[in-house]
C-alpha cells in the first residue's frame, strides 16, 4: 500500500507539472470556504478522498480497491481518531479550568465531513458556534 500510495502521488505530481492535471479547487477556494464557514461544500464533502486523486475511474479495479483501503485508513487514523483526541483534550481543559477563557484553533481538515472536532464536543453536550472571519468575538 505504501508503494502504491507513493507511485500515485508521484504520478499526480508529474501530471501537475506537465499541465495534464489540475486540482479542482484553488487555495483561494479553500480559504474562502473556510472563512465563510461553508465546510459542507463540495470541497469538504465527507465523500471526498482524504488522499486526493487516489480513487478515480482510470485505476484498474484491483488498484481502486487498494486506493479505497488507503483512503479509509487515512480517514480513520489521521482525521477521525485525531478529532476524538483533540475534542477530548478541549473538553478536559474546559472542565479542569471552568473559570478561564480559551481560544482553540484547528486546521480546516478537522472540520471536514462527519466526526469533526465540533461533532465530538457537541456529543459531549457543548454548544459550538462558528465565528466568521472579521467578526468580533
Automatic annotation (TrEMBL):
InterPro entries: TIKI1/2-like, TraB/PrgY/GumN_fam
Membrane-topology annotation of the record: Single-pass type I membrane protein
Keyword set, alphabetical order: Cell membrane, Glycoprotein, Hydrolase, Membrane, Metal-binding, Metalloprotease, Protease, Signal, Transmembrane, Transmembrane helix, Wnt signaling pathway
Uppermost EC category: hydrolase
Cofactor(s) this protein cannot do without: Co(2+); Mn(2+)
EC annotation from Swiss-Prot or TrEMBL: 3.4.-.-
Molecular functions per Gene Ontology: metal ion binding; metalloendopeptidase activity
Cofactor: binding details: Divalent metal cations. Mn(2+) or Co(2+).
A GO biological-process term: proteolysis
Signal peptide residues on this chain, from the entry's feature table: none
Superkingdom of the source species: Eukaryota
Coarse class of the protein's main subcellular location: membrane
Record's GO cellular component terms: plasma membrane
Protein location: Cell membrane; Membrane
Keyword Cell membrane: yes
Function: Metalloprotease that acts as a negative regulator of the Wnt signaling pathway by mediating the cleavage of the N-terminal residues of a subset of Wnt proteins. Following cleavage, Wnt proteins become oxidized and form large disulfide-bond oligomers, leading to their inactivation.
PANTHER family assigned: METALLOPROTEASE TIKI (PTHR31120), METALLOPROTEASE TIKI1 (PTHR31120:SF7)
Homology family: Belongs to the TIKI family.
Protein name: Metalloprotease TIKI
Lineage, broadest ranks: Eukaryota, Metazoa, Chordata, Craniata, Vertebrata
Gene assigned in the entry: Trabd2b_2
Amino acid at each position: 500500500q505504501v508503494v502504491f500510495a507513493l507511485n500515485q502521488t508521484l504520478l499526480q505530481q508529474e501530471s501537475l507539472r506537465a499541465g495534464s492535471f489540475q486540482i479542482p479547487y484553488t487555495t483561494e477556494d479553500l480559504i474562502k470556504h473556510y472563512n465563510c464557514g461553508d465546510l459542507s461544500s463540495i470541497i469538504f464533502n465527507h465523500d471526498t478522498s482524504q488522499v486526493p486523486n487516489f480513487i478515480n475511474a482510470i485505476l484498474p479495479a484491483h488498484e481502486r480497491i487498494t486506493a479505497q483501503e488507503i483512503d479509509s485508513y487515512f480517514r480513520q487514523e489521521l482525521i477521525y481518531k485525531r478529532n476524538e483526541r483533540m475534542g477530548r483534550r478541549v473538553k478536559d481543559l474546559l472542565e479542569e479550568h471552568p473559570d478561564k477563557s480559551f481560544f482553540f484553533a484547528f486546521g480546516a481538515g478537522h472540520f471536514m465531513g462527519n466526526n469533526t472536532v465540533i461533532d465530538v464536543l457537541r456529543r459531549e453536550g457543548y454548544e459550538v458556534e462558528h465565528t466568521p472571519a472579521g467578526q468580533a468575538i
